[in-house]
Design goal:
This protein has 401 residues and is an alpha/beta fold. It folds into three domains: 43 residues; 90 residues, no CATH class; 239 residues, no CATH class. Helices cover 51% and strands 8% of the residues. The protein contains 16 helices and five strands. A five-stranded mixed sheet has the order 3-2-1-4-5, sandwiched between helices. Strand 2 and strand 3 form a beta hairpin. Helix 8 packs across helix 13. It is found in: Nucleus.
Length: 401
Amino acid sequence: MTLWNCFCYLWLYFSDSCTSSDDFDIELDEMELVATGYLFYYSRVNRPQRKSPPTICTYLKDLLEGPVEDCRDLLRMDKHVFHKLSEILRGKGLLRDTPSVLVEEQVAIFLSIVGHNQRIRVVQERFQRSCETISRHFNTVLKAVKSLSCEFLQPPPLETPPEIVNTKRLYPYFKDCIGVIDGLQIPAHLPANNQSRFQNKKGILTQNVLAACTFDLQFIFVYPGWEGSVEDSRILRAVLDDPNQNFPQALKGKYYLVDRDYTNTEGFIAPYPGKRYCLHEFRGASKMPKNAHDLFNHRHNCLSNIMQRSFSILKTRFPILKSAPQYPFHVQRDLVIATCALHNFIKREDGIHDWLFATGAEDAALVEEPCGKEEEEELQLLHLDSTPVELVADSLCGMTS
């Protein structure tokens, strides 16, 4: 029954029961009072409730207001980088505040999982959220960060990298080198019917990831999801044959360095086959390079080592890549892309001030500068007028003769 129907019913009732005009006026006043009271009650009950905006959870609030080391330990980045990342994801509409969880908390949930390889139940206790909420925001942030990979993974610059220009042992011999390509084996979790294909040479279940990086430790291309049993060279050929992969091809005269699992082709230079290559093979006074081929392989390995340094920093920051997380395989694949994108974002925003990049720069110099007679002998071996392309051409001629 509507309010108007109630009012009409009361009016008819009182009009029939009243015997005089004075009684009718009194009853009418009472009826108006009842109706007014009902109207007030009805308006209060049905008025839309104002929802208070979500607030940051106590745990994250204390973390962001606490020591820098605590923030680095949980979020794997400094505070200002974390805030910048949250602002970008919110500003681009990739994430939005929910009625109970801010974007900052959503990002923190994701980072605490990939930065410590923790189970959802552990993170649930920390943030005081349900397992469903933690799982939902983990997947939402993963999708959002992955969508930024095209922005964070950029082609290499055309100029000679300063890491080469500023090193006499590398310049001008490698002045046209723009990056390094290599494969990375990452532990994978798979159902029994797919395990045989993903076993690598050591019998471990892995996904093979093809990656390219520059000499400032930034990734420029990442292609995860291949079976651990597949050779690196086959993955590279598949990438080059598929224009949808948007691989940053080397311009004419430029090239990437690849290890001896690959072959020399235009735009890709491998070390001399059948010669010493690994750095430990050159340690000791009696094992110094004896000819131009030895020296070229030694320098090639020194430069290519930048990929291992990049992988090391990536896996140290995001230990989830060191194990086989029990997620669907497409999630494991996306985690590789997302963590590489975050790796680049941190490098660009914080540079050498980030504690992991700073430690990597201190622990491993690209190459040690020689001095005196040793430098003169090396220059004679490598020939000042030779370039890596000419040396590789000479190597290929030697193979066919």
